[in-house]
Amino acid sequence: MRDTRSLPARIALYCAVLAGAAIMLFPFLWTVITSITPEGSLADGPTLIVDDPTLGAYRTLLDAMPIWRILVNSLAIAVASTVLQLITGSMAAYGFARLHFPLKNVVFGFYLATLMVPLQVLVVPLFIEMKTFNLQDTYFALLAPTIASAFGVFLLRQAVTAVPLELDEAATIDGAGHLRIFTTIVLPLIRPALATVAVFAFMGSWNSFLWPLVVIRSPEFMTLPLGLSTLQGQFTTQWDVVMAGSVVSIVPIAIVYLLAQRHIIAGVAHTGIK
Amino acid sequence: MNGTMDRTEDPTVSRPVESTANRTTTTRRPRNWKTLGWVLFFLLPSAIPLFVFTLVPMVSSLWVSLHKWNLISPMEWVGFRNYTNLLTDETTRRVFLHTLIYVAGYLPIVYAGGLVLALALNQKLKGRAFLRATYFLPVVTSWVVVALVWKWLLNPTNGLVNQLLGAVGLPEPGWWTDPQWALPAVILSSAWKDLGFVMVILLAGLQSIPNDFYEAAKVDGSNAWQRFWRITLPLLSPSTFFVVVISLINGFQVFDQVYVMTAGGPSGSSQVVVGQIYDLTFRYGRAGEASALSWILFALILVITVIQIRGQRRWVHYA
């Protein structure tokens, strides 16, 4: 089937995939172009080739908000949330897969129940909780709902269950305790599942908008999505500045993506095969 | 796999050994305490945050939904009146309709688009890895950025899309400034972002279809069209099922891109359920109704998901 394709069919195929790539890439290019177009030339829309490129929009952006701090906030919160979810998730996975205790299924049922409840059900009471303990506008508030994820526990438990029990038994005979078995045998063997959980944890935190919008007011604790959304004016929007902000928030994640592209895509594809 | 499962899941396997060793409860207790210690050690790091930041808010959300409350003055018990009021309210019906339109517009576009891209990338093709990475790039970009970039592309006066439409003599819609076009603008940008995600899931599904099936069908004299309908689509159904379930769950919770692009406007024409929950709480100080609305939405998502899981036997074929 594949080798017998006719030349016109092959040309059509390449045209289609390249058109697709153009549709996916062009908005990013347009964002960069807009961000370096002088504000005065924006009234008729930017042109593909900018006559007098300027970094003015980026300077306005720096004056408008502590963009570097917001960028570091976003990265730090995403990394912290990922690390915490990997630790709490893999430990719980080991507990559910390897330890025997009464009411285990009931406890696991509670974990599953939290998996099903979407964030918007929790947003109002979570906000009240934070307000009660005076934790609004803190890094802790941003991080709190993402310390543990039932989705991660669920995925990792399946991975731990697939690790042969004989390995544990052999290690036990050699005198290893639960902690040694967990760190030296189980963790290395569930690395693919850990990678998948890491990808989802990082992307989830990096993209999170509703919760920061609810709980954060001061610019110094904002994350990128929230900071960017405040750039839109009530009546007029300076599109060159908004696009400059978009570039600043796309570049770091694009770098992470380019470096880890294979693992990220494999991680996403992995969740679809069940 | 099953053997390991049985041994890990079934505590009775180890018990007979202990009883034949004739251990008394007094000697067994220290070991049980030790096990309990390990259970707490492994589970508490996740159990405490899940309890405090998910389970407690869940229960208190139910509690709040039975009250009239503006987040400041004391709560006033109203029973199920928030629910009955919402279910008969015209605005509720509108926001659910908008959410439904969003899902109904978004899902066919991402599925058809994602399928075409996945089928193309499943061919022998130069630069396949590059193309796959390119299609996936919007997936890792945040919703807020995507919404802002598309709000600019779809700017009615000097946006790129209208300039292109104008250049070829087509009508230039008002997009997010026009009540008729606000939802389509949101749908278009959302589909653009998620196309790569759907493509990756479907591509993984396509690659798991054994080539023998196609070879056998060809020997039997089938054409490419028949093979697509009789082999590819049925065997892709588990991936399709996953995409549909996930898209519906996420689609009914749509918020970020609507809030950024239209804020539910113009004049409420693109307000969705989660947007309404947010506005009820933080703009109108009606937290009780907002909580009730969030539970109605949750119930709807749950029912739809259960129906799909029940119905999957009819059309999902696991090879």
UniProtKB/TrEMBL annotation, chain A:
It is found in: Cell membrane. Keywords: Cell membrane, Membrane, Sugar transport, Transmembrane, Transmembrane helix, Transport. One of its GO terms (cellular component) is plasma membrane. Belongs to the binding-protein-dependent transport system permease family. This is Multiple sugar transport system permease protein. It is a multi-pass membrane protein. GO terms for biological process: transmembrane transport. PROSITE patterns: ABC_TM1. The chain crosses the membrane at residues 12-33, 70-94, 106-128, 140-160, 181-203, 241-260. Signal peptide: none annotated. Residues 71-260 form the ABC transmembrane type-1 domain. It comes from Kribbella caucasensis. The lineage of its organism: Bacteria, Bacillati, Actinomycetota, Actinomycetes, Propionibacteriales. It holds the Pfam family BPD_transp_1. Its main location: membrane.
Automatic annotation (TrEMBL), chain B:
It comes from Kribbella caucasensis. The chain crosses the membrane at residues 38-64, 95-121, 133-153, 181-206, 227-249, 292-309. Residues 1-12 have a biased composition (Basic and acidic residues). It is a multi-pass membrane protein. It comes from the Bacteria. It is found in: Cell membrane. InterPro entries: ABC_transporter_permease, MetI-like, MetI-like_sf. SUPFAM superfamilies: MetI-like (SSF161098). Coiled coil: none annotated. Belongs to the binding-protein-dependent transport system permease family. GO terms for cellular component: plasma membrane. This is Multiple sugar transport system permease protein. Residues 1-26 are annotated as: Disordered. One of its GO terms (biological process) is transmembrane transport. Keywords: Cell membrane, Membrane, Sugar transport, Transmembrane, Transmembrane helix, Transport. Residues 96-308 form the ABC transmembrane type-1 domain.
